[in-house]
């Protein structure tokens, strides 16, 4: 299992995913789409990637907006798993 990241590691990794925001023990990003159907298509694509990674985000859907929150719950904070998944999710939104 991945180890919790230190503050300097977090700063370095955040530079690679600039649209994600660092909160206390998680990173989050809100994606906006044209409509509900596009938002759901995106969530389904995220679900496939999350299953492949065996690491799952918290997902909040509000019509055409999808908020994703990443944290390694078993470690109580952020690990490399979260940043790897964030990078993969970003490619889905391009």
Keywords, separated by commas or semicolons:
94 residues; 4 strands; single chain; four-stranded antiparallel sheet; alpha+beta; Gyrase A, domain 2
What does this protein look like?
The protein is α+β, with helices and mostly antiparallel strands and 94 residues long. The chain has a single domain (5-89), classed as Transcriptional coactivator/pterin dehydratase (Gyrase A, domain 2). Helices cover 43% and strands 20% of the residues. The protein is built from three helices and four strands. Strands 1-2-4-3 form a four-stranded antiparallel β-sheet, covered by helices on one side. Strand 1 (21-22) and strand 2 (27-32) form a beta hairpin. The longest helix has 18 residues, at 36-53. It is globular.
Strand content: 15-25%
Assign the CATH superfamily.
Transcriptional coactivator/pterin dehydratase
Mean pLDDT: 96
Count the beta strands: 4
Termini distance? 30 Å
The percent range for helix content is: 40-55%
Poorly predicted ranges: none
Number of domains: 1
Sheet with most strands: strand arrangement: 1-2-4-3
CATH class: Alpha Beta
* General shape: globular
From the helix content, strand content and strand pairing, which structural class follows? alpha+beta
What is the N-to-C order of secondary-structure elements (H for helix, E for strand)? HEEHEEH
């Amino acid at each position: 299992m991945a180890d919790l990241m230190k503050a300097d590691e977090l700063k370095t990794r955040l530079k690679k995913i600039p649209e994600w925001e660092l909160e206390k023990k998680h990173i989050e990003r809100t994606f906006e789409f044209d409509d509900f159907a596009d938002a759901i298509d995106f969530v389904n694509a995220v679900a496939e990637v999350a299953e492949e990674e065996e690491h799952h985000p918290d997902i909040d859907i509000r019509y055409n907006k999808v908020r994703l929150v990443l944290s390694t719950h078993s470690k109580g904070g952020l690990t490399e798993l979260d940043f790897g998944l964030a990078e993969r999710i970003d490619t889905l939104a391009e």
